[in-house]
Amino acid sequence: MDQGVAAVLAALIAVAGVALGLFGARWQARSMQEQANAAIEAVRAQGRDQNAQWRRTVRRDVWVEYLGAIDEFRLSAGVVAEHLADENLPEAELALEETRSRSMGATDAYRKIELEGPEQIVSKGYALQGSIVNTLFELEQALTAARSMRVLREAGEREQREVPSDQDRPITRILSSLRELQAMGSNDPGRTEYGQQIGLQIITLGLLSASDAAALLFTCSQQLSLSEALDRLPHGRWLRFHEVRTDFVQAARSHLDEST
Fold it and tell me: What is the Cα–Cα distance from 67 to 85, expressed in whole angstroms?
């Protein structure tokens, strides 16, 4: 082999070596890039998992805080109802102020749920907030009704002392009609009309203001008959409140189960 051929072969071998080196370098670089991408994706996946776990923890804590506020409101509302049942109106009024404060605490806790979500839990919480508003309204009406009933009873006692004939005792008849209204079932179709007739009589006689008479009749019509109260055991008048709270808890559990 002469020197020219040897030089050409050497050059070809060098070129081939460079090509192979470049190919190897590219393959190695590609492999390293794939490894790097896989590592980055693994870090991102871990970050997503950690963030999801953190979100679940935050949401769970927010839900627990809200349920605590709800239960405090419910207990406070029960105290108001007990004082009203005992006709201890000053204590009922104090307890009602405490219940209003508890409702504000529950509202503040609910705002956190609105921020944290998810929408399903937000909607369930909204229903609970509605139950709080309704409960407060019913307790306020019941307190006004208790005061109004006391006024009617005192007027009825004066009437019985001053009027000898039962036929001339309209207040006594109104009190009797109110007892009949309370005894009627909540699904009785004539309950509303009967209550309106009583309210008209009360206002016509000037015994109560229209708003006080309305509160009295609303409360009487909302009271459960004995049979209804037995059907709604063990939660009694709080059955609807209990049902809405249960819906919230079940939705929260379901969401946590789906996230695990």
Answer: 27
What does the pLDDT profile of the chain (260 residues) look like in tens digits?
Answer: 566 656 555 555 555 555 555 556 566 656 666 665 665 565 555 555 555 676 788 899 999 999 999 999 999 999 999 999 999 999 999 999 999 999 999 999 999 999 998 999 999 999 999 999 999 999 999 999 999 999 999 999 999 999 888 778 999 999 999 999 888 877 788 888 999 999 999 999 999 999 999 999 999 888 776 667 667 767 778 889 999 999 999 999 998 888 66
Tally of CB atoms within 10 A around 120: 12
This prediction has a pTM of: 0.78
Long-range contacts of the stretch 49-55 (C-beta < 8 A, 24+): 52/259, 55/116
The residue type at 144: T
Token pair of 207 as six digits: 């015994």
Q: Which residue has the tokens 């208790």?
A: 146
Helix (H) or strand (E) holding 124: helix 119-162
